[in-house]
Amino acid sequence: MLQLIFYVFATILVASGAMVISARNPVHSVLFLILAFFNAAGLFLLAGAEFLAMILVIVYVGAVAVLFLFVVMMLDIDFTKMREGLQKYAPFGAAVGCILFAELVMAGLHWMFSPVMPLPITGGLGQMGGPVTNTGALGTLIYTHYLLLFQLCGLVLLVAMIGAITLTLRDRPTGRRQIISLQHERKRADTLEMMDLPLGQGTDANGGFLRPHDSYYVTAVPGSYGVPEAVEEEHEELVVREGEER
Amino acid sequence: MNWMLALPELVLAVSGLVVLSGGVLTKKGHAFLPTAALTIAAFVATIFLVGLSPDGVGYHGLFQVDAFARFIKVLALIGAIVAVALSVGHRDEGHELPFEMPVLVLFSTLGAMVMASSASLMTLFVGLELSSLSIYVLCAIERDRPQAAESGLKYFILGSLASGLLLYGISLVYGFAGTLSYAPIAAEINSVGALPLGLVIGVVFMLVGLAFKLSAVPFHMWTPDVYQGAPTPVTAYMAGAPKFAAFALILRVMSGPFGAMSPRWQILVEVIAAMSMLFGSFAAIPQHNIKRLMAYSSIGHMGYAMMGLAAASPAGTTGTLVYLSTYLVMNAGTFGVIEAMRRRGQEVDEISDLAGLGRTNPGMALILAICMFSMVGVPPLAGFFGKFMVFAAAWQAGLYPLIFLGAVSAVVGAYYYLRVVKVAWFDAPAAPFDRPAASVSFVSIAMGLATVLFLLGLGPISDAARAAAMALVG
Fold this sequence. Notes:
The complex is a heterodimer.
Chain A: H1 2-22, H2 26-46, H3 50-74, H4 79-82, H5 86-109, H6 134-145, H7 147-168, E1 176-178, H8 180-185, H9 188-191, E2 220-222, H10 228-245
Antiparallel strand pairs in A: 1-2
Helix pairs in contact in A: 1-2, 2-3, 6-7
Chain B: H1 7-25, H2 32-52, E1 56-58, E2 63-65, H3 67-88, E3 91-92, E4 95-96, H4 100-116, H5 121-139, H6 146-177, H7 182-191, H8 197-214, H9 223-229, H10 232-238, H11 241-255, H12 262-282, H13 290-311, H14 314-339, E5 342-343, E6 346-347, H15 357-360, H16 362-376, H17 382-396, H18 400-426, H19 438-452, H20 454-473
Antiparallel strand pairs in B: 1-2, 3-4, 5-6
Helix pairs in contact in B: 1-2, 1-4, 2-3, 2-4, 3-4, 3-10, 3-11, 3-14, 3-20, 4-5, 4-11, 5-6, 5-11, 6-8, 6-9, 8-11, 8-12, 9-13, 10-14, 12-13, 12-18, 13-14, 13-17, 13-18, 14-16, 14-17, 14-19, 14-20, 16-18, 16-19
């Protein structure tokens, strides 16, 4: 039974891996990549490495693959152009692949643990008693033995976040940012007009059509960041101006 | 678990989070001054806590506090205070720096402190990354200037490469010793007869990675561009705290876990030191930009400081620590003057812009002259004592070729330092500079005075350095 499950996961993994590089539509490629990740996670589960399986799904599917999707869908990449050299480079690529595969086989055949290698640190695990799961063991180590480093790594991530925000968030004078509280206060009646139209007639014939009463700008301030003090005045001014226009 | 051991770091980290939250909540455009002031206050408080922190090893052998760690931490914190104080007056086309700047300096200094206290290769790496990552961002923080972006990107790419090399070295050492803590590694090295090649390669890779952070030749290529492109307060910071921390790592790692194999790495350190001194002095001669000049000067100074390491003796370590202290004061004084080089709100950084400073602003020119003479190593000033102590240690260790090369490069270095003084005092005056911000004047005057009066503090500082060196040897 276990073997059957293994082969199911493995077959789908290899097949979706092949689809990643052969699918014409790049979005399909990314979706197949996600499928491949899920199947690899299944294989990890079978091997008893439940932590790796979870990390694979959370990190690769949750973050990396979604990022790929963004890149593929948002950026203007000409994929036909990227594929142009495929025929020319195929033999070379296949040769590299064969060499890598042969090396893997050779390494796998002679794989063994060195007899003199000392055991890794298992501090704190001794007291737990009973069988310990991977996740439990890692958690015990990280939150006791390596607590200081764990917190410091958190600071490293915080610095990365500060850096990303400082270097990329720009105050654009032409941009507009929604004022959440005002947007929440709006009711459907403020923005939309529902009309019952007789069959066969358009809204034109009934004096107007379905659309917001006032503009989206009522609930937005200029600039990328809302400046709290300026918001209220700005809002009133906008309302007045739009009223005049009407 | 002894939490008190890392109390200064914990307090600094929490202050950083508080200052950051405060900065985010303050109205945009008014946040810089309060954040900078709070950051300096946090640094000052941390200096006191560092002075009070007890000796010991804690956190399961990951973290240690001794006289050496305290010495380096105080140096790094003073360097950070100077950098933040300089940044208060900084304007780029009328804009002040974003309020994240002091916060990032704070986190970078925290990384430097962790590096100084590392008792395990993993602590070393995490501290180094915290420190470096903040500096990558700091370099590019004036992101609208192409030079700043270039500076940040260059440092980021090359710094990541160096981190990779360091990590590879660490993994080889781990493969040999099966542990990352310093004491067991030292025990393991002492217990084997012949050193395996993998370990030696690992140590060399670690040395390369750390030499990059120190900008020692031949891993110095990033320094001039990064120094020139980064905002002046950031450059002042980079020339201080991170270098001290990297030196702390080299000293700690090389004399701690790898102390038993010192004959193997000594020749390497000698070569790096000699090349840094020579390159630092000769390559600085054609420079006309004062920030680039200071970059080459820093390369040279790192060479002199490494001379103490090459001696591989407590006297050498003491010399290096005193050298770093003198470098801190004279370097900070010089950057105070550079920060004050502004005309009509625009930053100018050519050496020729200093022409006739002796007539337009004699006080500033005097401080510049003091710092430059100190960098040359003229006797009553700070720089002399550092140079004297490392040369003496190298003499005791019998490194005569290194002393000869050091003397040659000191003479060559005198030429380009004194050229700056000549331009400032004897050339026809250029247009006067703007009136510098109070904090900038304060930093340059304080550091100029410290350079002149270093003799008064020499006794306590060299005592502290000696205690630190002894703590390192154990």
